[in-house]
Amino acid sequence: MDFRTKIEIPESDIHISHQSHILMMGSCFIENIGKLLIENKFKTNLNPFGILYNPQSISRALRMLIERKEFTEKDIFEYKGLYHSFWHHGSFSDTDMNKCLAKINTELIRSADDLRKADILFITFGTAYVFFSKEQNMVVGNCHKLPASAFDRFRMSVDDIVNEWTLLIGALREMNPLLRIIFTVSPIRHLKDGAHENQLSKSTLLLAIDEIIQSGEGTRYFPSYEIVMDELRDYRFYNEDMVHPDSVAIKYIWERFSEAYFDTETHPIIDEWRKLRQALNHRPINSDSEDYKHFLRQTLLKLKTFNKKYPYICCTDEILDLESRS
């Protein structure tokens, strides 16, 4: 007997390889999958605005990349000694206004180029609830711990999300006709909203994505939410906060994602790189020993062979590091 419900994922016509260019945006859940893609040497741009949770903010961030917006001092604000952007995660904030702007604009330029050459855009919606700045008259991506009285909070409707993203996808297609888009809903529960409100929020996101996919070519849905809620419906698959999936759950979602989207040539490359990565991460008791120096030289030789075999995989940093240590 099978004592679990396995989520069936239809065979996809979207195939990801190490030659694919991937742009990922959304909630903190996408950071888990994105970091695994980067760790396994996929060409991945992960959250160029930092973590964003709601569909409106993610859409607006993508429009800024389409427009190649340049941020100026009018687009940021100072609060308690730090300069912030309402569109960006706190990792872009800084005590120096110019440094804050430099971080934002450097990433915008790089990511605007990446969006234009991207094969895959992977989007994770976290919540349908948004914070609306009364002073700025707009939905913000991050409140930066301003007083709650500065914002109105409401839940986007299915129509709000569908209308916003239908127009956005049209603009993306005009700029990059071959772009394929994968949507998912974060399995991380926003229990601060309340259990019932969290369910309403996730349901809104699921219904909106379903409508978007029904009407949009080149758009697909990956069921990470359903995998956690139905296949892994046990608190042993959560961290101590009982909200975030743990490393076992993330690894399982990664396996299902790999099965769904990686082409046949990609899996053996990942296996080859895993062995190299283990060697690169090895730290000896005596780093000055001749045995370890020999180990480094052998690893460098294997790394250069791997890089020659797969010239589209960048190993420059690792090669330089090994050369400096051997």
Total number of distinct structural domains:
2
Through-space gap between termini:
54 Å
Poorly predicted ranges: none
How do the SSEs run, as a string of H and E? Answer: EHEHEEHEEEEHEHEHHHHH
CATH topology of the largest domain: Rossmann fold
Query: Given the structure, what is the number of helices?
Result: 10
Q: What's the helix and strand layout?
A:
Layout: E1 21-26, H1 28-39, E2 43-46, H2 55-67, E3 77-79, E4 82-84, H3 97-117, E5 120-125, E6 129-133, E7 138-140, E8 151-155, H4 158-175, E9 180-185, H5 195-215, E10 219-221, H6 224-231, H7 247-261, H8 266-280, H9 290-309, H10 316-325
Parallel strand pairs: 1-2, 1-5, 5-9, 9-10
Antiparallel strand pairs: 3-4, 6-7, 6-8
Helix pairs in contact: 2-3, 2-4, 4-5, 8-9, 9-10
Description of the structure:
The protein is α/β, with parallel strands linked by helices. The protein has 2 domains: 21-262, SGNH hydrolase (Rossmann fold); 264-326, no CATH class. It is 47% helix and 13% strand. It contains 10 helices and 10 strands. The longest helix has 21 residues, at 97-117. The protein starts with 20 loop residues before the first strand and ends with a helix.
Question: What's this, in brief?
Answer:
This protein is α/β, with parallel strands linked by helices. It has ten helices and ten strands. The strands form three sheets. The protein has a five-stranded parallel beta sheet with strand order 2-1-5-9-10, with helices on both faces. The chain has a three-stranded antiparallel beta sheet with strand order 7-6-8, with no helix packed on it.
